[in-house]
Amino acid sequence: MSLFRTHARKSRRSLALLLGTALSFVVAPQLHAADVSTPATNAPEKAQILPGKIVYAQLTTPDLDKAKTFYGSLLGWTFKDVTVSKGRYTQAIVNGHPVAGLVERPNMIAHGDPLWLPFISVQDVKAAASAAKVWGGHILFKPQNVIGQGDESVISDPQGGLFAALRSATGDIPDDTTPPQQGEWVWNALLTSKPYEAAGFYQKLFGYQVEAAPDAKRGSAYLLESQSITRATINPLPPRLPDGAHARWMNFVQVDNVGVTAQKAVELGGKVLVQPHPDRQDTIIAVLADPTGAAFGVMEWHDSTGTGDAK
Questions:
Q1: 136 — alpha (psi -120 to 50), left (phi > 0) or beta?
Q2: Does the pLDDT value for residue 3 go beyond 90?
Q3: How far, rounded to the nearest angstrom, does the alpha carbon of residue 67 sit from its chain's CA centroid?
Q4: What's the pTM?
Q5: Which of 187, 183, 177, 178 is nearest to 13 (CA)?
Q6: N or C: which terminus of the chain has fewer CB atoms within 10 Å of its end residue's CB?
């Protein structure tokens, strides 16, 4: 499985996304996937695993119908409902390919705030979960095998950033050179109060090559690379957030026009948390929230070389 199509080639390493957002998430103690069945087992030997690649994203929301209306109208996503043992679950589809999962948890008081959760590929989920605890992380959902997905575990990093470690049952789709299209995920950023410590945590957990982000102040921002491809940036939390604010992952969707998308999000009941503005390498970005408060980014990025990028 590889539903999250990361758009980031080596020459894009200077896109550091030094964001200033006004977001505030809490740790969700009972986040988990839609359909848990058996203890974790190894994926088939033939499955290609690309450790460190962000391969999937899942929205936990109290109202699945409202989420489908919002994201379908905003991003052009269509949906395929999937039968699960508990609750409701659907896949978001772009150009015939799944790009995300949406799971309904009506009682969000028990499951934390609505949020988008990134899934990061790893060779061994049990080993990753054990290592995360040693290095200061917390296990929110112990390693389990999820039917149709593979082995996964939801983990909080030492600063409270939430993510899932995943070993896909079917392997990860190889990185390719197809330019991103409207509605596809295009970039990932971790915002944290301790970028240096976070870089070390994720490097040890996923084997990332870590480099200082171009033009960043010493120790303030880093690039995470695997398979010679930049997968994400680590950036400082904006100073206006209160002391003790949790780290949070921010995932960005490619759109044709960031300004139009931001305006439409408001019309659909969402909010603009960070207004559209230029970023590195001629990109335009904004940070939005859906009607239930789940935050995500939108990006308008164009390949000026015309050669395409690895995803």
A1: left
A2: no
A3: 17
A4: 0.83
A5: 187
A6: N
